[in-house]
Amino acid sequence: MHPFLQKLEKETLICDGAMGTQLYARGIPIQSCFDLQNLLRADLVAEIHRSYIRAGAEIIQTNTFGANRIRLAQFGVEDKVREINLKGVKIARESREIEGESIFVAGSMGPTGTFRPDLRGIKTPEIHDAFREQAEGLLEGGVDLFVLETFSDTDELSEAVSAVREVSDLPIIAQLSFLEDARTLSGMTPRDAASVLCGLPVNVIGCNCCVGPQIVLDVVSEMATASTLPLSAQPNAGLPGYVGGRFIYFASPAYMAEYARRFMALGIKVLGGCCGTTPGHIRAIRQAIEHPARRDGEILQIPAQPPEETAAPMEEVQEPTDRLSSMLGKKFVISVEIDPPKGIRPKKMLEGAAALKEAGVDCINIADSPMARVRMSCIAMASLIQGQIGLPTIIHFTTRDRNLMGLQSDLIGAWALGIRNVLALTGDPPRLGDYPNATAVYDVDAIGLIKILKKFNEGLDWAGNSIGHRTSFCIAAAADMAFIVSEEKEYARFMRKLEAGADFIMTQPIYDVEILESFLDRTGPLPVPILLGVLPLQSYRHAEYLHNEVPGITIPEGIRKKMHEAQDKGIQEGLSQAAELLSQARPLVSGTYLMPSFGRYEVAAELVRMLCGTAVKAGSGRAAG
Fold first, then answer.
1. Which residues, listed in sequence order, are joined to residue 204 by a DSSP beta bridge?
2. 597-601, long-range: CB within 8 Å, 24+ apart, which pairs?
3. Has residue 618 got a pLDDT over 70?
4. Which residues of 253-282 are buried (b: 16+ CB within 10 A; e: fewer)?
5. Packing angle of the helix pair 124-141, 81-99 (nearest 10 deg)
6. 290-325 pLDDT, tens per residue?
7. For the purposes of burial, counting CB atoms within 10 Å of the CB of 392, is it exposed (0-12), middle (13-18) or buried (19 or more)?
8. What are the Cα distances from residue 60, in Å, to 25, 232, 301, 305?
9. Range with the lowest mean pLDDT among 27-36, 146-155, 174-183, 606-615?
10. What's the pLDDT tens digit per position in 383-397?
11. Nearest residue to 621 via CA among 325, 363, 332
12. What is the mean pLDDT of residues 7-13?
């Protein structure tokens, strides 16, 4: 059985509301070809689809109601039948993908506007061929079902059904429109119409458009007495009035919600709206169905919603209160860096993260194949730590390995996995690592990556396309303080990172607080918090290696001398020096991120315990932001 029919057996499905009047409300002139907007203003059509999905619609109808050859000829675009219908389905499907909801896309087909029992301007075969041509375009686009709607004559509706059935076995909802006297334009009663429609190869029959919910309720009540098929109802929001140069529909969402309960009592299986209805009406219908009245005569009170003439604000995901952005500037944040494994087993890293959590760490930051050596994905490692250990993470994310498409795809995936904090990096060149002949991408650098993340936070991708919802990534920029102080180009580059929208700074490791002070003298008061990088020394040889062979790290001679004197007590000496450095720097920074050497998480955990034992509130000095 088709998934739509399976779901229909179990529950009432909520359909969307009007498309044409929503386009009109967004500035498309009423005399325009609304179907053509699929090609001219796909952004507006998609915006309406997404608004209905967010309102709770489980079926959205393509913007193709009049996209048959006969109707399109009125606008001189009858040669674009396939293109308009194909694009209409594509827009609807992409809207579904963006919103991430499991809903159905229904291909909307309306009458030709020429079929009259008393005066047929076009022969039936031509009408049949027009419907078939449209159905083929919708089917090619990938609709889940067909909605044949607003037909005023059962003969023309029968032609449309026959044409669809020649090309598809997908479910069909067949809907007639009735006049105020509850009869079709040809004078047929709802009961007689139901008898005819039940004889067609369709799956749902019903009524749409008409005057408003009162008339539609009367019509479907009579149809129910003769129908052997599930029923649908999609009323207008009452009669329109011409106010201030615009057509306005006056039936409120609360009024529609009241009738939703009555439709449900009748057993209606597909319920939505037609002309004049908005996402606000659909939202109210959804709420009324989910929260029915507690006793007879008691109607759920749902506040009326204003007409949605502009896009509804994009929703933001509710975030836990213990996320990193809520800590910065309010406490001294302690993060510890973990490198993902070189193989497929992350057991050691997870055990290290668990030990660090017990020691009191606030966050784990995860490198992205540092030194261009192949390791497990930082996103996968972050997801494992967050899911199994319960600590927030900061992923180091480079532009070295991913083109513009890959960058954005991975970041969208990271957000879906609950990763909220990103350190934007350009990345070490491949020639340093295991695969010196690998191709470096670098479509953008770290500054460009910050801009991409800020666009995501606006609900847009790099090209300006909607991603459906705003993210709220907390974005870090790296700072090599010694270079920024001494090199004008590095200083200018750092300031560009701030201008691009970095939310906080993570520095390279230092061993002398004077470097931090010189950096802040060079930059002046910073508008964002700083996490100071600290790499505890392990031994004299470790100190000499870092000082002489690692670019950007300078270790004062006095510290190297102490490490030499410590002999086999090098680890304890390194911890003491790191704690002393952080004690001096604490008034100037909002936290630290510790880098355990050689994967010795127990050493980092000891330093975390030392810091937590003497922790004070983050300073309000020059770098508190």
1. 173
2. 597/535, 597/536, 597/537, 597/538, 597/542, 598/538, 599/339, 599/348, 599/352, 600/538, 601/336, 601/338, 601/351, 601/352, 601/353, 601/355, 601/356
3. no
4. bbbbbbbbbbbbeeebbbbbbbbbbbbbbb
5. 40
6. 876 544 444 444 444 444 434 444 444 444 434 888
7. buried
8. 19, 14, 26, 20
9. 606-615
10. 999 999 999 999 999
11. 332
12. 95
Name the residue with tokens 């991408």.
Answer: 441
- The whole-chain average pLDDT of the chain stands at 89
For the 324-613 domain, the top CATH level (class) is alpha beta
Amino acid sitting at position 137? G
pLDDT > 70? residue 369: yes
- For residues 450 and 436, give the distance between their C-alpha atoms in angstroms, rounded to a whole number: 27
CB 470 within 8 A of CB 459: yes
pLDDT of 292: 66
Give the range among 21-30, 401-410, 610-619 with minimum mean pLDDT.
Answer: 610-619
Q: Which two tokens stand for residue 444?
A: 């953008």
> Cβ atoms within 10 A of the Cβ of 228, count?
10
Give Cα 190 to chain centroid, integer Å: 43
pLDDT computed for residue 529 by the predictor: 96
Sequence-distant (6+) residues with CB within 8 A of 184 are 152, 153, 154, 176, 177, 178, 193
3-290 is a CATH 3.20.20.330 domain: yes
Residue type, 154: T
Tell me the sheet residues that pair with 172: 146
3-class SS letters over 209-252: ECCCHHHHHHHHHHHHCCCCCCEEEEECCCCEEEECCEEEECCC
Fold match flag (3-290 vs 324-613): yes
Long-range contacts from 435-438, C-beta under 8 angstroms, 24+ separation: 435/372, 435/374, 438/372
Task: List, for residues 247-265, the tens digit of each pLDDT value.
Answer: 677 788 999 999 999 999 9
CA-based torsion, 481, 483, 487, 492: positive or negative: negative
How far, in Å, CA of 452 to CA of 460, rounded?
Answer: 9
Q: In sequence order, which residues have a C-beta less than 8 Å from that of residue 135 and are 6 or more positions away?
A: 107, 109, 146, 163, 164, 166, 167, 168
Average pLDDT over residues 109-113: 93
Residues belonging to the chain: 625
- Residue 621's pLDDT band (boundaries 50, 70, 90)? very low
Give the tens place of pLDDT for each residue, 137-146: 999 999 999 9
Taking the chain, what is the end-to-end CA distance rounded to the nearest angstrom? 60
Main-chain dihedrals φ then ψ at residue 284, nearest 5 degrees: -65, -40
Q: Which residue has the tokens 């909801």?
A: 101
Q: Any residues with CB less than 8 A from the CB of 599 and at least 6 apart, and which?
A: 339, 348, 352
Q: Residue 144: exposed, middle, or buried by beta-carbon count in 10 A (0-12, 13-18, 19+)?
A: buried
> What residues does each domain of the chain span?
3-290, 324-613
Q: Name the residue with tokens 């061993």.
A: 511
The answer to whether residues 507 and 530 touch, using CB atoms and an 8 Å cutoff, is yes
